[in-house]
Design brief:
The protein has 15 helices and 16 strands. The strands form 4 sheets. It has a 6-stranded parallel β-sheet, sandwiched between helices. Strands 12-13-14-16-15 form a 5-stranded mixed β-barrel. Strands 4-6-7 form a 3-stranded mixed β-sheet. α2 links the parallel β1 and β2. α10 packs parallel to α14 and α12 packs parallel to α14. The termini are far apart.
Length: 440
C-alpha cells in the first residue's frame, strides 16, 4: 500500500511540474494577433440590412474581435430599421467603428444616425454625411405630424451623440435643417473622430485610442498589427436583400400574375401555374418587409376589375385605358419609401402596367370568345363541311368528308364524284345537298 501511495504522489508531482512548465510557456509567448471584423455596407437601410448588421455584431462578439468596422456607403433608408441598427450598435460588447468609405461615398439620411452611434466615427477624404431630415414617401406630411417626427428624430440622435462626446448642435442641424457635412467639416465640427484614407490606416491610427462606451465606461483599443477579417452575409441574406429591391419585387408580382392566368387558360400545363404562384408569394414576402401603401393595393384591385369589364363588355378602349392608368399609378405608389432608391422606377411602372394591361385584355377576350363558341364533336362537327360522293346518291349512298366515309342522303339524286355540303346529321347519317358551283 505504501509503495502504491508513493507512486501516486510521484505521478501527481510530475503532473504539477508539467502544468507549471506549460503555464510559463504560455505566459512567455506573445499575445495572439488581434482580430478586427469588417462589414461592407453599401446598401439602403431596410429590414435585411438590419439583420446583416445584427449578425455581424454577434459574429464579432463571438469571435472575440477587438472591434467591428462597418464600412458605410448609403443614401439612407427606413427609420424603423435605422433605430434597430442603432440599438444593436449601442448595445454591442465589441467596439463598433463606422467608417464612411471609399472616397465619393456618403452616409446620407439614416446613415448619419449610424455614423454618430458608433464608438468611433470616421470618414475617408472626399466623403460626406448628413441630410438626415425625415421625409414622407409620397406627397407631404401634415405640418403637425412632420414636426412630431422631426422632434422625435432629433431627440433620438441627441440621446447618444452627447454620450459619445460629439457636437450635439451640429448633429441635430443635420436633422432639423438637412445640413450635410464633408469629411473635413465633420472632423472640424467634432462629428467624427478622425479621417483616414484606408481601413488599414484607420486601424493603425486607432491603436491605443480610448473610446467612450454608451454606458459611460472607457475602453482602450489594442489594434497593433490587427488582422482584418471581412464578414460576408449569408446566401439567404444576399438573396433576400436583392429581393428587397422594389423593382425586382414588382417584376416578380406582374410576371407571376401572368403565369397564373396562363395556367387558368391552358389548364394541365402545371409549370406556369406553379412558377407563377412561387413568384407571387416571393413578391408578397418582399413587399411585406417594405412600407406598402394600402391605397395603392386598392388601385391594383380597381385596375383588375376595369380590365375584366373591358374584355367582357367591350368598352371601346375606355375601360382598358382607365384600368392601365389605375394599374400604373398603383404600381408607382406601391412602396411608400422615404428615398428614391427604395421606390418603384416610374418607367418600369409605366411599362409593366401597359404591357400587363394589354396582354390581360387580349387573353380575356380570347377566353370569353372561346366560351361563347359552340364546341362540337363527332358528326355534329361535320355540319357545313364539303364532301365528295363516292357513288351515285339515289338518294342514299356514301360520301368522303374530312378523310372519313359516312352514310349520306341527298334531297335529289346526284352522280358519283359530285361535290356536296353537309347540312345536318340525323342518327349517324349525314344529310347533304349539292354545291351550287357543282350544279352550274
Amino acid at each position: 500500500m505504501r509503495f502504491g501511495s508513493m507512486i501516486a504522489k510521484a505521478f501527481f508531482g510530475l503532473l504539477c511540474v508539467a502544468l507549471g512548465i506549460i503555464s510559463v510557456g504560455r505566459a512567455q509567448r506573445p499575445d495572439a494577433q488581434a482580430v478586427v471584423v469588417k462589414l461592407v455596407l453599401a446598401d439602403t437601410m431596410q429590414p435585411m440590412t438590419q439583420e446583416i448588421v445584427a449578425r455581424a455584431i454577434a459574429h464579432a462578439e463571438s469571435r472575440g474581435a477587438q472591434a467591428l468596422v462597418i464600412e458605410l456607403n448609403t443614401p439612407g433608408g427606413l427609420l424603423d430599421s435605422t433605430r434597430a441598427m442603432v440599438g444593436a450598435i449601442l448595445s454591442s460588447r465589441a467596439p463598433v467603428i463606422v467608417y464612411v468609405s471609399p472616397s465619393g461615398a456618403r452616409a446620407g439620411s439614416a446613415g448619419f444616425f449610424l455614423l454618430e452611434a458608433a464608438d468611433v466615427a470616421a470618414m475617408a477624404p472626399g466623403t460626406n454625411a448628413g441630410a438626415a431630415h425625415p421625409v414622407a414617401g409620397f406627397g407631404t406630411m401634415d405640418e403637425t405630424i412632420a414636426q412630431k417626427v422631426t422632434n422625435d428624430a432629433e431627440a433620438f440622435l441627441r440621446s447618444y451623440v452627447a454620450r459619445r462626446n460629439r457636437n450635439v448642435e451640429a448633429a441635430t442641424e443635420a436633422v432639423r435643417a438637412s445640413r450635410s457635412y464633408s469629411a473635413d467639416e465633420a472632423l472640424a465640427g467634432h462629428l467624427v473622430d478622425l479621417t483616414a484614407a484606408s481601413d488599414a490606416e484607420l486601424v493603425a491610427r486607432l491603436d491605443g485610442k480610448t473610446v467612450a462606451r454608451i454606458d459611460g465606461s472607457r475602453m482602450i483599443l489594442h489594434l497593433a498589427g490587427a488582422r482584418i477579417e471581412e464578414f460576408q452575409p449569408s446566401l439567404r441574406e444576399k438573396l433576400l436583400d436583392w429581393l428587397m429591391n422594389p423593382n425586382i419585387a414588382l417584376l416578380f408580382l406582374v410576371g407571376g400574375a401572368l403565369l397564373i392566368y396562363l395556367e387558368f387558360n391552358v389548364p394541365g400545363t402545371i409549370v406556369p401555374g406553379a412558377l407563377g404562384a412561387v413568384m407571387v408569394l416571393v413578391s408578397v414576402f418582399a413587399l411585406n418587409l417594405l412600407p406598402v401603401r394600402f391605397t395603392a393595393i386598392l388601385l391594383l384591385i380597381a385596375a383588375a376589375v376595369l380590365l375584366s369589364l373591358e374584355a367582357k363588355m367591350g368598352g371601346h378602349g375606355v375601360l382598358a385605358t382607365a384600368g392601365i392608368l389605375s394599374l400604373g399609378f398603383g404600381l408607382l405608389t406601391l412602396v411608400n419609401a422615404p428615398i428614391e432608391q427604395m421606390r418603384v422606377n416610374p418607367w418600369l411602372a409605366f411599362a409593366a402596367s401597359t404591357g400587363f394591361g394589354a396582354i390581360t385584355v387580349f387573353l380575356l377576350r380570347l377566353a370569353l370568345r372561346a366560351r361563347k363558341s359552340k364546341f362540337r364533336l363527332g358528326a355534329e362537327a361535320l355540319v357545313g363541311r364539303c364532301a365528295v360522293a363516292m357513288e351515285p346518291l339515289a338518294p342514299e349512298g356514301h360520301v368522303l368528308v374530312e378523310g372519313e366515309i359516312w352514310n349520306a342522303v341527298a334531297a335529289q339524286p346526284l352522280p358519283k364524284g359530285a361535290e356536296v355540303r353537309v347540312i345536318a346529321c340525323e342518327q349517324s347519317r349525314l344529310r347533304v345537298e349539292a354545291e351550287v358551283a357543282a350544279l352550274r
